[in-house]
Write a structure and sequence with these properties.
With 59 residues, the chain is mostly helical. It has two helices and no strands.
Length: 59
């Protein structure tokens, strides 16, 4: 990734940045998972207030 950051944007076909690299990777994984686990349909959208975050609960 460090090597990509050193590229001049004028030489690249698309803008190169860490955030665009990460976004592309996440979208590719999401598309793959939707095909494999949801019959190709988009996953249901959830409100951020209902998303769980933090350490896992030990039970």
């Amino acid at each position: 990734m460090v090597a990509l950051q050193k590229l001049d944007d004028d030489d690249a076909e698309v803008p190169v940045s860490l955030s665009s690299y990460v976004e592309s990777a996440i979208l590719a994984a999401l598309d793959r998972d939707e095909r494999e686990h949801n019959g190709g349909l988009p996953f249901k959208q959830r409100r951020q207030t209902k998303l769980k975050s933090g350490p896992p609960v030990q039970g």
